[in-house]
Amino acid sequence: MRRFLLKLLYLILPLVALSYPLDYLISNALKEDHGMHGEYEVWNAIYENKIDGDIAIYGSSRAWVQINPEILETYLGKKTYNFGVDGHNFRIQYLRHLEYIKHNKKPRHIIVSVDAFTLQKREDLYNQEQFLPYMLWNKNMAVYTSGYKGFSKADYYIPFIRYAGRTATIKKANTYLLHPEDTSENFRQKGFRSFDLQWDASVDSLLASEKKYRIKFHPDTRTLLERFIQECQNDGITVTFVYAPEYIAGQQYVENREEAMEIYREIAQKYSLVFLDYSQNELSFKKEFFYNASHLNKEGAHLFTQQLAQDLKKVTF
Amino acid sequence: MLFNSLDFAIFLPIVFALYWCIPQKNNKAQNVLIVIASYLFYGWWDWRFLSLILLSTLVDYYVGYTLSRKQKKSHKKLLLWLSISINLGILGFFKYYNFFLDNFISAFSLVGQEFTASSLKVILPVGISFYTFQTLSYTIDIYRGKLQPAKDMIGFAAFVCFFPQLVAGPIERATHLLPQFYRKRTFVYTKAVDGVKQILWGLFKKVVIADNCAEYANYIFTNSEELSGSTLVIGAVLFTFQIYGDFSGYSDIAIGTARFFGFDLKQNFSFPYFSRCIAEFWRRWHISLSTWFRDYVYIPLGGSRGNVWQQVRNTFIIFIISGFWHGANWTFIVWGMLNALYFLPLLLAKKNRNHIEIVAKGKLVPSVNDIFKMISTFSLTMLAWIFFRAENIAHAWQYLTTIFSSSLFQYPEVIPKQELLLIICFLIIEWVGREGTYAIQIIGTKHKKGLRYTLYYGIALAILWFRGSEQQFIYFQF
C-alpha cells in the first residue's frame, strides 16, 4: 500500500507543482487583453483597487455603451465609473458589485440601468473567459458564476484546471507573455465605450425578421435585486433605477415588456427609489440616435447622458 | 456524482482510505462501507431514487433466498416472475411509460379515435437499466441452479449498488461479482497500479476524445439541415468516436476504480472499431450487455438453432430489445433493427463465429483484406449510429439523405482539425495496445520505466491541454 501511495504521489506531484505557477502566468497575461469589449479592464480596475468613485453605474451593455461617466462627472462634479457587463442579467451585475465594494471604497450613489432582461437568468455563462484570471479560490465568483452552463466545481479550486482544453485562451495568454511590451489602448474609458455607428437598412431587415420574445422572469434574480437594494440602503448608498431609451419599434418585440416595467415601478415604490424611465423619451423615437433597437450610438449616448445628468441633478443630487 | 468531477476526486480517496483501514479479515465491515459509500455516490445525484435501488435489493434478496428453499418448480417459477415483474415494472414505468402512452394515442388517432391522456413528467433514474439487469441476473441464475443465494443482506446490497459500476455498468453477473463480496480482499499493488493506468486511459477517452468530439458532433447534428453531406459524414465520424470514448472511457474508470478495492469487473469493450465484421463488433462492444442478452434472452429463445425463420426471428428480437433498452424512442429500435440486418447474413452463412481473435495478432500492420473489412464494418456501424444520435426518425432520414446526395462531394463547412488529429493519435495507441484489455495495459508493462512515465505524463498533459467542455456521460440516460 505504501509503495502504491508513494508512486501515485510521484506521479501527481510534478503536475500539481507545475499547476499553480502555470495558472499564475496565464492569468496575469490574460489580464492584459483588451478583447471581449474590455471586460478584463473593468475587472482589473476592480481588483487593483483603482476605483475611487462617488457614482457607480450598473447594468448590461445598455449601461456601458449608453451612460458616459465623464459627462456625469462634468455635470454632477462626482467621480463616476461604469460597471456595465456585456450580455448579462442582474446576477452577474451583482457579482461585479460585490467584488467592487470588497476591493474599493464604496460609492455614495449607484445607478442601476434596468432593462427588459435584467430579471432573467441566461443559461450559458456568456463571455465566460472574462472570469478566468480572477476566479481561483474566489468565493463570490464561485457562488455567482456556478449556476450556469460553464464552469465545473474543480475550476474554482484546482489551479490550471479551468484553462485545460482552452487552447485558444492559452495561446492568447502566450502572446502577452512573449510580447509584454505590446500593450494596446484600453477599449473602455472608465468602463464606458460608445459606438460611432449608424442605423442602416440591415438593422431594419434584422428588426423585421425578429420574432416576438417573452421574458422569463427569474424569481431568485428579483430577490437578489431587492437584497441588493436593502444592502445598499443599509450602507447609506442611494440607488436609482434608470430605464435608458429603447427604439420604439423594437419595444413591441418583447411581449411582456410592460410586466417588467411594472416590476421595476413596484420595487422602486417599495424601497422609495427614484425610477427614471426614458423608454418613451423623444430619443426613443429617433432612429438616427441608435445603431440597433436597444443601443444608442455615440451621439445618442452623449445626448442621453446629458439629459440623465440634468435629471439626476434635479431629483437626487 | 460524475467520475470526472471534483466531488468524486474527494470522495474516492476518502472511501479508499476508510476501506483499507478496516481489518482485511472483516469483509462484512468493508461491505457495509461499500453500501454507505455507494448510496452516498448515488444520492449525490438524487437521493429520492435510492428507494428504487433499495426496493430492487429487498425484492431480489427475498426472492433469491426463498427460491433456494422451494422444491416445487411451479413455486420457483412464480417467484422468478415476481422478481421479473417488479424489476421490469419499475424500469418500464420510469423509462417507457410516456413512450407507450404517446404511441398508444397516435395509434388511436390513426384510426380516427381521439384519445387524450396526459404524459407524466417522469424523471429517469440514473443507472436504472444497469442495476435492474444486474439484479435480474442474480434471480435468474438462482432459478437455473447456477448460483447459491447471497449469504447475507449486506453483501447482496453491496453487489447491487457497488458504486464504480452502479450507474453505467459494466453489468456484472452475480456469478462473477457476488462471490467477490464474500472473499477476503487484500490490497494487491500490481492490481492497484493497473487500476490507476486504466483510470488514466479512461479519463483520456472521456475528456479528450469524447468531450471534444461531442462539441462538433452536437453542432453538426443540430444544424444538419443547413450543412453539406460531407460535413454530415464528419459529424457521424465524430459521434462514432464520441460514443465510444464516452462509454468505454466510463467503463475503464469503473473497472480501474473497482481494482482499488480489490474487485475485478468484466471487460466491457475490446477495441470494437478494429472489428472485421458486425458479429465481431458485437462481441467487442458493450460486452456485458451483449452477453446478458445472449444468455438470458437469445439462447432461451433457441439462439442460432432451429430453422431459418427461427434464426431470423431470434436475431431481430435480440437486436430490437437491445435497441429499446437504450431508450424509449423509435430511433433506438431502428438502430437495433439495422444491426440485425447487418448481422443476419453472417448468421445465415454461418460466418458469425469468424474473427474471434483480435485483428493482426502479433503483427504490426494488418493485411489489406483486414483493412478493407475494418473500414467496411466501421462505416456500417457509423451509419447505424446516425439513428442512435438523431432526435427522431425524420431527423435521421434527413441526415442520411443529405449524406447520400451530391453535397457529399462539396468541401465541408466544418473541419475540426484538432479533433481529427486527436482521433488519429488515439487510434494509433489503441492499435498498438489492442492485445491488452485496454490500450495502455501492455505498453505500460512491456517498456522501460522512462518510456512508461513519458507515456503516462503525456496522457495526463493531453488531458489537461485538450480537455473538452464538460459533457454528461451519454450512457447515464440509459
Automatic annotation (TrEMBL), chain A:
Reading the lineage from the top rank, the first entry is Bacteria
User: InterPro entries per the record?
Assistant: SGNH_hydro_sf (IPR036514)
Q: List, in alphabetical order, the Gene Ontology terms for molecular function in this entry.
A: hydrolase activity, acting on ester bonds
Q: What is this protein called?
A: SGNH/GDSL hydrolase family protein
Automatic annotation (TrEMBL), chain B:
Q: How does it sit in the membrane?
A: Multi-pass membrane protein
Which taxonomic lineage is given here?
Bacteria, Pseudomonadati, Bacteroidota, Flavobacteriia, Flavobacteriales
Tell me what this protein is called: D-alanyl-lipoteichoic acid acyltransferase DltB, MBOAT superfamily
Location of this chain's protein in the cell: Cell membrane
Main localization of the protein described in the UniProt heading:
membrane
Q: Which GO terms describe its molecular function?
A: acyltransferase activity
Q: Name one Pfam family in it.
A: MBOAT
Q: Does the keyword Acetylation apply?
A: no
Transmembrane parts of this sequence: 6-22, 51-67, 79-99, 119-140, 370-388, 450-468
Sorted alphabetically, which keywords does the UniProt record give? Acyltransferase, Cell membrane, Membrane, Transferase, Transmembrane, Transmembrane helix
GO cellular component annotations, sorted alphabetically? plasma membrane
BP GO annotations: alginic acid biosynthetic process
Which family does the UniProt entry place this protein in?
Belongs to the membrane-bound acyltransferase family.
Would the keyword Acyltransferase be found if you checked this record's keyword annotation? yes
